[in-house]
From TrEMBL:
Gene: glnS
Assembly, per entry: Monomer.
Protein's name according to its UniProt entry: Glutamine--tRNA ligase
Catalytic activity: tRNA(Gln) + L-glutamine + ATP = L-glutaminyl-tRNA(Gln) + AMP + diphosphate
Record family assignment: Belongs to the class-I aminoacyl-tRNA synthetase family.
The protein's enzyme class: ligase
Keywords, ordered alphabetically: Aminoacyl-tRNA synthetase, ATP-binding, Cytoplasm, Ligase, Nucleotide-binding, Protein biosynthesis
Segments carrying motif 'KMSKS' region: 273-277
Source domain of life: Bacteria
Residues that bind ATP: 37-39, 43-49, 233, 266-267, 274-276
Pfam families on file: tRNA-synt_1c, tRNA-synt_1c_C, tRNA-synt_1c_C2
Enzyme Commission number, as recorded: 6.1.1.18
Annotated L-glutamine binding sites: 69, 214
Length: 556
Protein backbone atom coordinates (compact mmCIF):
# COMPACT_ATOMS: atom_id res chain seq x y z
CA UNK A 1 0.00 0.00 0.00
CA UNK A 2 1.30 3.46 -0.78
CA UNK A 3 1.41 5.83 2.14
CA UNK A 4 -0.96 8.76 2.18
CA UNK A 5 0.47 11.31 4.57
CA UNK A 6 -1.02 13.92 6.82
CA UNK A 7 -4.57 12.70 6.57
CA UNK A 8 -6.68 12.13 9.63
CA UNK A 9 -8.15 8.68 10.04
CA UNK A 10 -11.88 8.94 9.44
CA UNK A 11 -14.60 7.31 11.46
CA UNK A 12 -17.85 5.98 10.01
CA UNK A 13 -20.41 3.20 10.47
CA UNK A 14 -18.46 0.78 8.27
CA UNK A 15 -15.28 1.24 10.27
CA UNK A 16 -17.33 0.66 13.42
CA UNK A 17 -18.51 -2.68 12.00
CA UNK A 18 -14.93 -3.62 11.14
CA UNK A 19 -13.74 -2.67 14.63
CA UNK A 20 -16.44 -4.96 16.08
CA UNK A 21 -15.55 -7.84 13.74
CA UNK A 22 -11.88 -7.61 14.70
CA UNK A 23 -12.70 -7.33 18.40
CA UNK A 24 -15.03 -10.33 18.38
CA UNK A 25 -12.47 -12.40 16.47
CA UNK A 26 -14.83 -12.97 13.53
CA UNK A 27 -12.02 -11.70 11.33
CA UNK A 28 -8.33 -11.37 12.11
CA UNK A 29 -7.55 -9.17 9.12
CA UNK A 30 -9.44 -6.97 6.71
CA UNK A 31 -9.78 -7.63 2.98
CA UNK A 32 -11.73 -5.22 0.77
CA UNK A 33 -12.02 -4.78 -2.99
CA UNK A 34 -12.86 -2.09 -5.50
CA UNK A 35 -14.91 -3.70 -8.28
CA UNK A 36 -15.43 -1.35 -11.26
CA UNK A 37 -17.10 -2.50 -14.40
CA UNK A 38 -14.76 -1.54 -17.29
CA UNK A 39 -17.49 0.24 -19.25
CA UNK A 40 -16.27 3.83 -18.89
CA UNK A 41 -13.83 6.09 -17.09
CA UNK A 42 -13.98 6.40 -13.33
CA UNK A 43 -15.68 9.48 -11.89
CA UNK A 44 -15.58 11.32 -8.60
CA UNK A 45 -18.27 8.97 -7.23
CA UNK A 46 -15.88 6.08 -7.75
CA UNK A 47 -13.23 8.10 -5.93
CA UNK A 48 -15.48 7.94 -2.87
CA UNK A 49 -15.59 4.16 -3.12
CA UNK A 50 -11.84 3.94 -3.83
CA UNK A 51 -10.94 6.11 -0.84
CA UNK A 52 -13.26 4.02 1.33
CA UNK A 53 -12.04 0.58 0.22
CA UNK A 54 -8.33 1.34 -0.18
CA UNK A 55 -8.38 3.69 2.81
CA UNK A 56 -9.76 0.97 5.08
CA UNK A 57 -7.17 -1.53 3.85
CA UNK A 58 -4.42 1.01 4.55
CA UNK A 59 -5.59 1.98 8.00
CA UNK A 60 -6.20 -1.62 9.15
CA UNK A 61 -3.01 -3.02 7.58
CA UNK A 62 -5.28 -5.09 5.37
CA UNK A 63 -5.48 -5.58 1.63
CA UNK A 64 -7.65 -4.15 -1.11
CA UNK A 65 -8.05 -5.90 -4.46
CA UNK A 66 -8.76 -4.22 -7.76
CA UNK A 67 -11.27 -6.42 -9.52
CA UNK A 68 -12.80 -5.73 -12.89
CA UNK A 69 -16.39 -6.79 -12.77
CA UNK A 70 -16.45 -7.83 -16.40
CA UNK A 71 -19.56 -9.87 -17.07
CA UNK A 72 -21.06 -7.63 -19.82
CA UNK A 73 -18.67 -8.14 -22.74
CA UNK A 74 -20.63 -5.96 -25.17
CA UNK A 75 -20.30 -2.79 -23.10
CA UNK A 76 -16.75 -3.27 -21.94
CA UNK A 77 -13.44 -2.30 -23.42
CA UNK A 78 -9.77 -2.91 -22.69
CA UNK A 79 -9.08 0.86 -22.87
CA UNK A 80 -11.29 1.30 -19.85
CA UNK A 81 -9.39 -1.45 -18.04
CA UNK A 82 -6.22 0.62 -18.54
CA UNK A 83 -7.66 4.02 -17.69
CA UNK A 84 -9.14 2.65 -14.46
CA UNK A 85 -5.76 1.33 -13.31
CA UNK A 86 -4.12 4.69 -14.10
CA UNK A 87 -6.76 6.55 -12.17
CA UNK A 88 -6.53 4.36 -9.06
CA UNK A 89 -2.73 4.75 -9.00
CA UNK A 90 -2.91 8.46 -9.64
CA UNK A 91 -5.26 8.83 -6.67
CA UNK A 92 -2.43 7.42 -4.58
CA UNK A 93 -3.53 3.82 -4.10
CA UNK A 94 -2.19 0.46 -5.10
CA UNK A 95 -3.97 -2.86 -5.12
CA UNK A 96 -2.87 -6.03 -3.47
CA UNK A 97 -1.27 -8.59 -5.79
CA UNK A 98 -2.37 -9.07 -9.37
CA UNK A 99 -5.30 -7.34 -10.95
CA UNK A 100 -8.37 -9.57 -10.71
CA UNK A 101 -11.15 -10.05 -13.18
CA UNK A 102 -14.47 -11.66 -12.49
CA UNK A 103 -13.79 -13.42 -15.78
CA UNK A 104 -10.83 -15.17 -14.07
CA UNK A 105 -13.52 -17.11 -12.24
CA UNK A 106 -15.73 -18.08 -15.19
CA UNK A 107 -14.73 -21.75 -14.83
CA UNK A 108 -15.48 -21.76 -11.11
CA UNK A 109 -18.68 -19.77 -11.56
CA UNK A 110 -19.82 -22.34 -14.09
CA UNK A 111 -19.04 -25.12 -11.59
CA UNK A 112 -21.02 -23.35 -8.86
CA UNK A 113 -23.97 -22.96 -11.21
CA UNK A 114 -23.80 -26.72 -11.83
CA UNK A 115 -23.74 -27.23 -8.04
CA UNK A 116 -26.95 -25.23 -7.65
CA UNK A 117 -28.62 -27.20 -10.46
CA UNK A 118 -27.51 -30.46 -8.86
CA UNK A 119 -29.05 -29.34 -5.58
CA UNK A 120 -32.33 -28.61 -7.37
CA UNK A 121 -31.77 -24.89 -6.81
CA UNK A 122 -31.46 -23.71 -10.40
CA UNK A 123 -33.26 -24.45 -13.66
CA UNK A 124 -33.13 -23.61 -17.34
CA UNK A 125 -36.14 -21.49 -18.23
CA UNK A 126 -37.51 -20.99 -21.76
CA UNK A 127 -39.95 -18.17 -21.05
CA UNK A 128 -39.26 -15.24 -23.37
CA UNK A 129 -38.51 -11.77 -22.04
CA UNK A 130 -42.12 -10.65 -22.08
CA UNK A 131 -43.44 -13.83 -20.42
CA UNK A 132 -40.71 -13.63 -17.82
CA UNK A 133 -41.81 -10.09 -16.96
CA UNK A 134 -45.44 -11.20 -16.71
CA UNK A 135 -44.60 -14.15 -14.49
CA UNK A 136 -42.46 -11.98 -12.21
CA UNK A 137 -45.48 -10.10 -10.78
CA UNK A 138 -45.21 -6.60 -9.35
CA UNK A 139 -44.29 -4.96 -6.06
CA UNK A 140 -47.94 -5.40 -5.03
CA UNK A 141 -48.58 -8.83 -6.53
CA UNK A 142 -46.60 -12.03 -6.15
CA UNK A 143 -45.20 -13.69 -9.24
CA UNK A 144 -46.12 -17.09 -10.72
CA UNK A 145 -43.90 -20.11 -11.00
CA UNK A 146 -42.35 -20.69 -14.40
CA UNK A 147 -43.62 -23.85 -16.13
CA UNK A 148 -39.95 -24.90 -16.41
CA UNK A 149 -39.38 -24.69 -12.66
CA UNK A 150 -39.85 -28.38 -12.00
CA UNK A 151 -37.71 -29.82 -14.77
CA UNK A 152 -35.59 -32.67 -13.37
CA UNK A 153 -32.00 -32.12 -12.24
CA UNK A 154 -30.67 -34.42 -15.02
CA UNK A 155 -32.54 -32.55 -17.71
CA UNK A 156 -31.44 -29.15 -16.34
CA UNK A 157 -27.82 -30.29 -16.30
CA UNK A 158 -28.13 -31.38 -19.92
CA UNK A 159 -29.87 -28.15 -20.95
CA UNK A 160 -27.29 -25.97 -19.20
CA UNK A 161 -24.54 -27.87 -20.97
CA UNK A 162 -26.30 -27.24 -24.29
CA UNK A 163 -26.45 -23.54 -23.39
CA UNK A 164 -22.71 -23.59 -22.82
CA UNK A 165 -22.09 -25.34 -26.12
CA UNK A 166 -23.98 -22.68 -28.03
CA UNK A 167 -26.91 -24.88 -29.04
CA UNK A 168 -29.51 -22.27 -28.13
CA UNK A 169 -30.01 -18.78 -29.49
CA UNK A 170 -29.49 -15.62 -27.47
CA UNK A 171 -32.59 -15.03 -25.36
CA UNK A 172 -34.02 -18.49 -26.05
CA UNK A 173 -33.41 -19.64 -22.50
CA UNK A 174 -31.57 -18.68 -19.32
CA UNK A 175 -30.47 -20.32 -16.09
CA UNK A 176 -32.51 -19.10 -13.11
CA UNK A 177 -32.06 -19.65 -9.38
CA UNK A 178 -35.06 -21.39 -7.81
CA UNK A 179 -35.85 -19.14 -4.84
CA UNK A 180 -39.30 -17.66 -4.23
CA UNK A 181 -41.68 -16.14 -6.79
CA UNK A 182 -43.67 -14.55 -3.95
CA UNK A 183 -40.72 -12.85 -2.23
CA UNK A 184 -41.28 -9.18 -1.37
CA UNK A 185 -37.79 -8.63 -2.85
CA UNK A 186 -38.12 -8.72 -6.63
CA UNK A 187 -34.49 -9.80 -6.97
CA UNK A 188 -35.41 -13.06 -5.18
CA UNK A 189 -38.13 -14.05 -7.66
CA UNK A 190 -36.07 -16.70 -9.43
CA UNK A 191 -33.41 -14.32 -10.76
CA UNK A 192 -31.53 -15.15 -13.93
CA UNK A 193 -27.98 -16.19 -13.04
CA UNK A 194 -26.65 -17.12 -16.51
CA UNK A 195 -27.62 -15.81 -19.92
CA UNK A 196 -26.57 -16.52 -23.49
CA UNK A 197 -24.43 -13.92 -25.28
CA UNK A 198 -22.52 -14.70 -28.42
CA UNK A 199 -20.03 -11.94 -27.68
CA UNK A 200 -16.27 -11.67 -27.79
CA UNK A 201 -14.87 -10.94 -24.32
CA UNK A 202 -11.82 -8.68 -23.81
CA UNK A 203 -10.29 -11.25 -21.41
CA UNK A 204 -11.71 -14.66 -22.34
CA UNK A 205 -12.07 -14.18 -26.08
CA UNK A 206 -14.61 -16.55 -27.61
CA UNK A 207 -14.37 -19.24 -24.95
CA UNK A 208 -17.83 -18.55 -23.54
CA UNK A 209 -21.24 -17.90 -24.98
CA UNK A 210 -22.90 -17.94 -21.58
CA UNK A 211 -22.14 -15.19 -19.11
CA UNK A 212 -22.99 -15.07 -15.39
CA UNK A 213 -25.14 -12.21 -14.07
CA UNK A 214 -23.75 -9.59 -11.71
CA UNK A 215 -25.56 -10.83 -8.58
CA UNK A 216 -24.31 -14.37 -9.02
CA UNK A 217 -20.80 -13.31 -9.95
CA UNK A 218 -20.14 -10.66 -7.38
CA UNK A 219 -20.75 -12.62 -4.21
CA UNK A 220 -18.81 -15.63 -5.47
CA UNK A 221 -15.88 -13.48 -6.62
CA UNK A 222 -15.83 -11.83 -3.19
CA UNK A 223 -15.89 -15.22 -1.50
CA UNK A 224 -13.13 -16.65 -3.72
CA UNK A 225 -10.92 -13.66 -2.84
CA UNK A 226 -11.68 -13.99 0.89
CA UNK A 227 -13.13 -10.50 1.00
CA UNK A 228 -14.27 -9.75 4.55
CA UNK A 229 -16.30 -6.58 3.98
CA UNK A 230 -17.89 -6.08 0.57
CA UNK A 231 -18.79 -2.40 0.38
CA UNK A 232 -21.22 -1.13 -2.21
CA UNK A 233 -23.76 1.58 -2.78
CA UNK A 234 -27.32 1.57 -1.44
CA UNK A 235 -29.05 0.49 -4.65
CA UNK A 236 -27.74 -3.02 -3.90
CA UNK A 237 -29.46 -3.17 -0.52
CA UNK A 238 -32.20 -5.59 -1.68
CA UNK A 239 -29.67 -7.61 -3.65
CA UNK A 240 -27.95 -8.43 -0.35
CA UNK A 241 -30.63 -11.17 0.07
CA UNK A 242 -29.48 -12.77 -3.13
CA UNK A 243 -25.80 -12.27 -2.24
CA UNK A 244 -26.39 -14.20 0.98
CA UNK A 245 -28.65 -16.82 -0.61
CA UNK A 246 -26.07 -17.80 -3.22
CA UNK A 247 -23.23 -18.13 -0.72
CA UNK A 248 -25.42 -19.92 1.83
CA UNK A 249 -26.20 -22.60 -0.77
CA UNK A 250 -22.67 -23.31 -1.96
CA UNK A 251 -20.64 -25.78 0.12
CA UNK A 252 -17.37 -23.91 -0.30
CA UNK A 253 -18.70 -20.69 1.17
CA UNK A 254 -21.38 -21.48 3.72
CA UNK A 255 -19.33 -20.40 6.77
CA UNK A 256 -20.08 -17.81 9.44
CA UNK A 257 -16.99 -15.67 8.72
CA UNK A 258 -17.57 -15.49 4.97
CA UNK A 259 -17.85 -12.13 3.17
CA UNK A 260 -20.75 -9.79 4.04
CA UNK A 261 -22.10 -6.92 2.03
CA UNK A 262 -22.54 -3.43 3.53
CA UNK A 263 -24.15 -0.53 1.72
CA UNK A 264 -23.43 3.19 1.87
CA UNK A 265 -25.00 6.10 0.01
CA UNK A 266 -23.55 7.10 -3.31
CA UNK A 267 -22.02 10.48 -3.94
CA UNK A 268 -24.21 12.89 -5.82
CA UNK A 269 -22.72 16.25 -6.76
CA UNK A 270 -24.67 19.34 -7.77
CA UNK A 271 -24.54 20.28 -11.47
CA UNK A 272 -22.95 16.93 -12.27
CA UNK A 273 -23.95 13.66 -13.86
CA UNK A 274 -22.62 10.62 -12.06
CA UNK A 275 -23.20 7.58 -14.18
CA UNK A 276 -20.81 6.10 -16.68
CA UNK A 277 -23.64 5.49 -19.09
CA UNK A 278 -24.70 9.15 -19.07
CA UNK A 279 -21.11 10.39 -19.19
CA UNK A 280 -20.61 8.12 -22.18
CA UNK A 281 -23.55 9.87 -23.87
CA UNK A 282 -21.83 13.24 -23.38
CA UNK A 283 -18.71 11.85 -25.04
CA UNK A 284 -20.42 10.10 -27.96
CA UNK A 285 -22.68 13.11 -28.64
CA UNK A 286 -19.60 15.40 -28.69
CA UNK A 287 -21.00 17.58 -25.94
CA UNK A 288 -17.54 17.39 -24.38
CA UNK A 289 -14.13 16.60 -25.86
CA UNK A 290 -13.66 13.07 -24.59
CA UNK A 291 -13.75 11.37 -21.19
CA UNK A 292 -10.90 13.52 -19.92
CA UNK A 293 -12.46 16.83 -20.90
CA UNK A 294 -11.70 19.14 -17.94
CA UNK A 295 -15.44 19.77 -17.49
CA UNK A 296 -16.09 16.09 -16.87
CA UNK A 297 -16.41 14.77 -13.29
CA UNK A 298 -14.12 11.89 -14.28
CA UNK A 299 -10.85 11.38 -12.44
CA UNK A 300 -9.05 11.94 -15.76
CA UNK A 301 -11.00 15.17 -16.33
CA UNK A 302 -10.38 16.49 -12.83
CA UNK A 303 -6.69 15.67 -13.21
CA UNK A 304 -6.46 17.49 -16.52
CA UNK A 305 -8.29 20.43 -14.96
CA UNK A 306 -5.62 20.71 -12.25
CA UNK A 307 -7.16 18.88 -9.30
CA UNK A 308 -4.58 16.99 -7.27
CA UNK A 309 -4.95 13.50 -5.79
CA UNK A 310 -4.69 15.00 -2.29
CA UNK A 311 -7.56 17.41 -2.97
CA UNK A 312 -9.82 14.58 -4.15
CA UNK A 313 -8.94 12.43 -1.14
CA UNK A 314 -9.60 15.43 1.11
CA UNK A 315 -12.99 15.88 -0.57
CA UNK A 316 -13.90 12.22 0.02
CA UNK A 317 -12.88 12.61 3.63
CA UNK A 318 -15.03 15.73 4.07
CA UNK A 319 -18.19 14.23 2.59
CA UNK A 320 -17.92 11.16 4.84
CA UNK A 321 -19.60 7.78 4.51
CA UNK A 322 -23.20 7.27 5.66
CA UNK A 323 -26.45 5.69 4.55
CA UNK A 324 -28.11 9.10 4.03
CA UNK A 325 -29.07 10.17 0.50
CA UNK A 326 -27.25 13.41 -0.23
CA UNK A 327 -26.51 16.05 -2.85
CA UNK A 328 -23.15 17.66 -2.23
CA UNK A 329 -22.69 21.35 -3.14
CA UNK A 330 -20.21 22.02 -5.92
CA UNK A 331 -18.35 24.45 -3.67
CA UNK A 332 -17.15 21.62 -1.41
CA UNK A 333 -14.88 20.13 -4.07
CA UNK A 334 -13.68 23.58 -5.15
CA UNK A 335 -12.81 24.49 -1.58
CA UNK A 336 -10.59 21.42 -1.23
CA UNK A 337 -8.42 22.32 -4.21
CA UNK A 338 -8.49 26.07 -3.54
CA UNK A 339 -7.25 25.65 0.03
CA UNK A 340 -4.42 23.41 -1.14
CA UNK A 341 -3.36 25.65 -4.00
CA UNK A 342 -3.57 28.84 -1.98
CA UNK A 343 -0.93 27.27 0.27
CA UNK A 344 1.27 25.67 -2.36
CA UNK A 345 0.81 27.05 -5.85
CA UNK A 346 3.55 29.36 -7.12
CA UNK A 347 2.32 32.75 -8.25
CA UNK A 348 2.63 34.01 -11.80
CA UNK A 349 1.10 36.68 -14.00
CA UNK A 350 -0.95 36.18 -17.11
CA UNK A 351 -3.18 38.62 -18.94
CA UNK A 352 -6.30 36.98 -20.32
CA UNK A 353 -7.79 39.92 -22.27
CA UNK A 354 -4.76 41.99 -23.17
CA UNK A 355 -4.61 45.69 -24.03
CA UNK A 356 -1.34 47.58 -24.51
CA UNK A 357 0.23 49.98 -22.02
CA UNK A 358 3.01 52.26 -23.26
CA UNK A 359 5.12 53.94 -20.59
CA UNK A 360 6.17 57.10 -22.32
CA UNK A 361 8.79 58.23 -19.82
CA UNK A 362 10.48 54.81 -19.60
CA UNK A 363 14.08 55.61 -20.49
CA UNK A 364 15.16 52.54 -22.43
CA UNK A 365 14.01 50.40 -25.31
CA UNK A 366 15.40 47.29 -23.61
CA UNK A 367 13.58 45.83 -20.64
CA UNK A 368 15.06 45.58 -17.14
CA UNK A 369 14.81 42.53 -14.90
CA UNK A 370 13.04 42.67 -11.58
CA UNK A 371 12.58 39.96 -8.96
CA UNK A 372 9.22 38.81 -7.70
CA UNK A 373 8.40 36.27 -4.98
CA UNK A 374 7.05 32.85 -6.00
CA UNK A 375 4.62 33.06 -3.07
CA UNK A 376 3.78 36.11 -0.98
CA UNK A 377 3.82 34.24 2.34
CA UNK A 378 6.50 31.69 1.61
CA UNK A 379 9.92 33.23 1.07
CA UNK A 380 11.36 29.70 1.07
CA UNK A 381 9.72 29.15 -2.34
CA UNK A 382 12.20 31.69 -3.74
CA UNK A 383 11.84 34.34 -6.42
CA UNK A 384 11.40 34.57 -10.16
CA UNK A 385 12.65 37.06 -12.71
CA UNK A 386 10.26 39.32 -14.55
CA UNK A 387 10.99 41.59 -17.44
CA UNK A 388 9.70 45.18 -17.15
CA UNK A 389 9.90 47.70 -19.97
CA UNK A 390 8.33 50.39 -22.07
CA UNK A 391 5.48 48.28 -23.39
CA UNK A 392 3.30 46.06 -21.28
CA UNK A 393 -0.01 44.26 -21.44
CA UNK A 394 -2.73 44.71 -18.85
CA UNK A 395 -6.24 43.25 -18.76
CA UNK A 396 -8.91 45.19 -20.63
CA UNK A 397 -11.10 44.99 -17.52
CA UNK A 398 -8.46 46.76 -15.46
CA UNK A 399 -8.71 50.12 -17.26
CA UNK A 400 -11.53 52.65 -17.36
CA UNK A 401 -11.77 56.16 -18.67
CA UNK A 402 -13.67 57.12 -15.55
CA UNK A 403 -14.85 55.23 -12.51
CA UNK A 404 -15.96 55.76 -8.91
CA UNK A 405 -13.68 55.06 -5.96
CA UNK A 406 -14.75 51.38 -5.72
CA UNK A 407 -12.86 50.65 -8.94
CA UNK A 408 -9.37 50.12 -7.54
CA UNK A 409 -7.62 49.69 -10.87
CA UNK A 410 -6.30 51.98 -13.59
CA UNK A 411 -8.40 55.08 -14.38
CA UNK A 412 -7.54 57.89 -16.75
CA UNK A 413 -5.54 60.58 -14.92
CA UNK A 414 -5.02 58.35 -11.87
CA UNK A 415 -2.37 56.03 -10.48
CA UNK A 416 -2.29 52.31 -9.87
CA UNK A 417 0.47 49.93 -8.76
CA UNK A 418 1.66 47.24 -11.12
CA UNK A 419 2.06 44.09 -9.05
CA UNK A 420 5.72 43.46 -8.15
CA UNK A 421 6.73 46.62 -10.03
CA UNK A 422 6.16 50.39 -10.24
CA UNK A 423 3.33 52.87 -9.86
CA UNK A 424 1.98 54.11 -13.20
CA UNK A 425 -0.43 56.88 -14.16
CA UNK A 426 -2.77 56.76 -17.17
CA UNK A 427 -2.31 59.90 -19.29
CA UNK A 428 -4.37 59.20 -22.43
CA UNK A 429 -5.67 56.25 -24.44
CA UNK A 430 -6.62 55.05 -27.91
CA UNK A 431 -9.54 52.93 -28.97
CA UNK A 432 -10.70 51.14 -32.08
CA UNK A 433 -13.75 51.93 -34.22
CA UNK A 434 -16.03 50.04 -31.85
CA UNK A 435 -14.80 51.99 -28.86
CA UNK A 436 -12.68 49.19 -27.41
CA UNK A 437 -9.59 50.54 -25.69
CA UNK A 438 -6.47 49.35 -27.51
CA UNK A 439 -3.58 51.28 -25.91
CA UNK A 440 -3.21 53.27 -22.69
CA UNK A 441 -0.34 55.74 -22.60
CA UNK A 442 1.11 56.07 -19.11
CA UNK A 443 3.96 57.56 -17.14
CA UNK A 444 5.71 55.69 -14.36
CA UNK A 445 7.35 56.79 -11.11
CA UNK A 446 10.75 55.13 -11.12
CA UNK A 447 11.14 55.69 -7.37
CA UNK A 448 8.34 53.25 -6.56
CA UNK A 449 9.83 49.79 -7.19
CA UNK A 450 9.04 47.91 -3.99
CA UNK A 451 8.21 51.14 -2.09
CA UNK A 452 5.49 53.75 -1.74
CA UNK A 453 5.78 57.16 -3.42
CA UNK A 454 8.14 59.31 -1.32
CA UNK A 455 5.80 62.33 -1.16
CA UNK A 456 3.13 60.35 0.67
CA UNK A 457 0.73 59.88 -2.31
CA UNK A 458 -1.58 56.98 -1.57
CA UNK A 459 -1.97 54.40 -4.37
CA UNK A 460 -4.63 51.86 -3.43
CA UNK A 461 -5.15 49.65 -6.49
CA UNK A 462 -2.87 46.88 -7.72
CA UNK A 463 -3.16 45.25 -11.14
CA UNK A 464 -1.23 42.50 -12.88
CA UNK A 465 0.64 42.85 -16.16
CA UNK A 466 3.06 41.17 -18.54
CA UNK A 467 5.97 42.85 -20.35
CA UNK A 468 5.22 42.93 -24.08
CA UNK A 469 8.50 42.05 -25.80
CA UNK A 470 9.03 38.92 -23.68
CA UNK A 471 5.35 37.91 -23.28
CA UNK A 472 4.38 34.41 -24.42
CA UNK A 473 1.09 34.12 -26.27
CA UNK A 474 -1.17 31.72 -24.40
CA UNK A 475 -4.62 30.22 -24.66
CA UNK A 476 -6.76 30.22 -21.53
CA UNK A 477 -9.65 27.79 -21.21
CA UNK A 478 -12.18 29.06 -18.72
CA UNK A 479 -14.58 26.40 -17.50
CA UNK A 480 -18.02 26.89 -16.06
CA UNK A 481 -20.59 24.35 -14.93
CA UNK A 482 -21.45 21.85 -17.62
CA UNK A 483 -25.15 22.00 -16.70
CA UNK A 484 -27.57 24.79 -15.97
CA UNK A 485 -29.49 22.79 -13.35
CA UNK A 486 -28.23 21.38 -10.07
CA UNK A 487 -29.72 17.94 -10.80
CA UNK A 488 -29.20 17.29 -14.52
CA UNK A 489 -30.02 13.59 -14.08
CA UNK A 490 -33.65 14.58 -13.46
CA UNK A 491 -34.04 15.71 -17.10
CA UNK A 492 -35.01 13.38 -19.93
CA UNK A 493 -32.66 14.87 -22.47
CA UNK A 494 -29.27 16.36 -21.83
CA UNK A 495 -29.89 19.16 -24.36
CA UNK A 496 -32.36 20.74 -21.96
CA UNK A 497 -29.74 21.33 -19.29
CA UNK A 498 -26.41 21.62 -21.06
CA UNK A 499 -24.66 24.95 -20.46
CA UNK A 500 -23.62 26.34 -23.83
CA UNK A 501 -21.06 28.55 -22.08
CA UNK A 502 -19.32 25.83 -20.13
CA UNK A 503 -16.09 26.54 -22.03
CA UNK A 504 -14.83 30.03 -22.87
CA UNK A 505 -11.51 30.28 -24.69
CA UNK A 506 -9.42 33.46 -24.34
CA UNK A 507 -6.22 34.29 -26.22
CA UNK A 508 -3.85 36.28 -24.04
CA UNK A 509 -0.28 36.40 -22.80
CA UNK A 510 1.74 34.88 -19.98
CA UNK A 511 4.96 35.92 -18.27
CA UNK A 512 7.98 34.44 -20.05
CA UNK A 513 8.87 31.90 -17.35
CA UNK A 514 5.57 30.09 -17.88
CA UNK A 515 6.93 28.65 -21.09
CA UNK A 516 8.37 25.97 -18.79
CA UNK A 517 5.09 25.28 -16.97
CA UNK A 518 4.74 21.55 -16.44
CA UNK A 519 1.44 19.94 -17.42
CA UNK A 520 -1.05 19.59 -14.53
CA UNK A 521 1.15 21.71 -12.23
CA UNK A 522 -0.86 24.51 -10.67
CA UNK A 523 -0.08 28.22 -10.66
CA UNK A 524 -2.00 31.04 -9.19
CA UNK A 525 -2.30 33.60 -11.96
CA UNK A 526 -2.54 36.64 -9.77
CA UNK A 527 -6.01 38.20 -9.55
CA UNK A 528 -7.40 35.54 -11.97
CA UNK A 529 -7.41 32.10 -10.43
CA UNK A 530 -5.58 28.79 -10.33
CA UNK A 531 -4.49 27.40 -13.69
CA UNK A 532 -2.41 24.53 -14.98
CA UNK A 533 -0.92 23.74 -18.38
CA UNK A 534 -3.12 21.34 -20.31
CA UNK A 535 -1.72 17.80 -20.34
CA UNK A 536 -2.68 17.21 -23.99
CA UNK A 537 -2.70 20.47 -25.89
CA UNK A 538 -0.09 22.68 -24.25
CA UNK A 539 3.44 22.94 -25.67
CA UNK A 540 6.27 25.47 -25.55
CA UNK A 541 5.12 26.71 -28.96
CA UNK A 542 1.45 26.92 -27.99
CA UNK A 543 0.77 27.37 -24.29
CA UNK A 544 -2.68 26.27 -23.17
CA UNK A 545 -3.83 26.79 -19.59
CA UNK A 546 -6.91 25.33 -17.93
CA UNK A 547 -8.72 27.22 -15.21
CA UNK A 548 -8.82 24.86 -12.25
CA UNK A 549 -10.80 27.11 -9.90
CA UNK A 550 -11.30 30.84 -9.61
CA UNK A 551 -9.83 32.60 -6.57
CA UNK A 552 -13.16 32.89 -4.84
CA UNK A 553 -16.16 30.59 -4.43
CA UNK A 554 -18.36 31.14 -7.45
CA UNK A 555 -21.08 28.89 -6.03
CA UNK A 556 -21.69 31.21 -3.08
P1 LIG B 1 -21.97 3.98 -12.87
O1 LIG B 1 -23.43 4.17 -12.80
O2 LIG B 1 -21.23 5.27 -12.87
O3 LIG B 1 -21.55 3.06 -13.97
P2 LIG B 1 -21.63 1.78 -11.20
O4 LIG B 1 -22.01 1.60 -9.78
O5 LIG B 1 -22.36 1.02 -12.22
O6 LIG B 1 -21.60 3.31 -11.49
P3 LIG B 1 -19.22 0.32 -11.10
O7 LIG B 1 -18.10 0.35 -12.05
O8 LIG B 1 -20.04 -0.89 -11.03
O9 LIG B 1 -20.10 1.57 -11.45
O10 LIG B 1 -18.75 0.79 -9.66
C1 LIG B 1 -17.62 0.34 -8.96
C2 LIG B 1 -17.81 0.70 -7.52
O11 LIG B 1 -17.94 2.11 -7.37
C3 LIG B 1 -19.07 0.07 -6.96
O12 LIG B 1 -18.80 -0.51 -5.72
C4 LIG B 1 -20.01 1.22 -6.83
O13 LIG B 1 -20.91 1.03 -5.79
C5 LIG B 1 -19.07 2.40 -6.59
N1 LIG B 1 -19.69 3.65 -7.04
C6 LIG B 1 -20.15 3.94 -8.26
N2 LIG B 1 -20.70 5.17 -8.29
C7 LIG B 1 -20.58 5.67 -7.04
C8 LIG B 1 -20.95 6.91 -6.42
N3 LIG B 1 -21.57 7.87 -7.10
N4 LIG B 1 -20.66 7.08 -5.11
C9 LIG B 1 -20.01 6.12 -4.43
N5 LIG B 1 -19.64 4.94 -4.94
C10 LIG B 1 -19.91 4.70 -6.23
MG1 LIG C 1 -22.50 -0.55 -13.25
Amino acid sequence: MSQVDNEVRPSNFIRNIIDEDLKSGKHTSVQTRFPPEPNGFLHIGHAKSICLNFGIAQDYQGQCNLRFDDTNPEKEDIDYVHSIQDDVRWLGFDWSGEIRYSSNYFDQLHQYAVELITKGLAYVCFLNAEETREYRGTLKEPGKNSPYRDTSVEENLALFEKMRLGEFKEGECALRAKIDMASPFMCMRDPVIYRIRFAHHHQTGDKWCIYPMYDFTHCISDAIENITHSLCTLEFQDNRRLYDWVLDHLDDFNQPNRTRQYEFSRLNLEYTLMSKRKLNDLVTNNLVNGWDDPRMPTIAGLRRRGYTPASIREFCQRIGVTKQENLIEGGVLDACIREELNENAPRAMAVLRPIKVVIENYPSATPETINAPMHPNKPEMGTRELAFGKELFIDAEDFRESANKHFKRLVLGKEVRLRNAYVIKAERFEHDDEGNVTTVYCTYDNETLGKNPSDGRKVKGVIHWVEASTAKPAEFRIYNRLFTDATPAAFDTIDEVINSESLVVLQGVAEAGLVNAEAEKAYQFEREGYFCADNKDSSKEHLVFNLTVPLRDSFA
